[in-house]
Amino acid sequence: MCVGDNTYYGTVSQQLDDLSSTLMGNALDMLAEGEYIGVLVVIQSEDNTYDSMQLSNDGIEAMLEAARERVRKARGALRYAIAYEGAIEDERGGYADALIVEFGERGRPSFSAYSLFEGRGRGNGFVWTDPAPAGEEEPLL
Questions:
Q1: Are 134 and 113 in contact (CB under 8 A)?
Q2: Confidence class for position 90, pLDDT limits 50, 70, 90
Q3: Separation CA 22–CA 52 (nearest Å)
Q4: By the 8 A CB rule, do 74 and 106 touch?
Q5: Alpha helices (H) in the chain, listed in sequence order
Q6: Considering the chain, what is the average pLDDT of its residues?
Q7: Is pLDDT of 38 > 60?
Q8: Are 97 and 116 in contact (CB under 8 A)?
Q9: Mean pLDDT of 86-108
Q10: Secondary structure E strands in the chain
């Protein structure tokens, strides 16, 4: 999601870029296969272990809040990424399906990015855009 020299967001480490890009890629693969993603969360701890989960049994706002709370309370959490489906307003005032990813790491600003997509469940007929910045988010760590 960021340029190799970290100038895209300015404070995104290569490790966080790798974590968020991998989660985004996995979520796009799921959407291409027609799977419901709900809210996906990956937390990397100081000891280089990963805790991942998929929330899928509630409304999107409740699942997002539960995911964010899980990150806030994770012991030894170093970085995280959260992915979910949403919509982004297009230039004509309509809305387009988007995969949104929030990501951050301890002691640095947190951000979000999105990728527009079409063709859910169409396998090779599924298309998506390169990730685009969506803004700064409230840091969870």
A1: yes
A2: confident
A3: 12
A4: no
A5: 14-32, 60-73
A6: 91
A7: yes
A8: yes
A9: 93
A10: 39-45, 50-55, 77-89, 95-105, 110-118, 127-128, 132-137
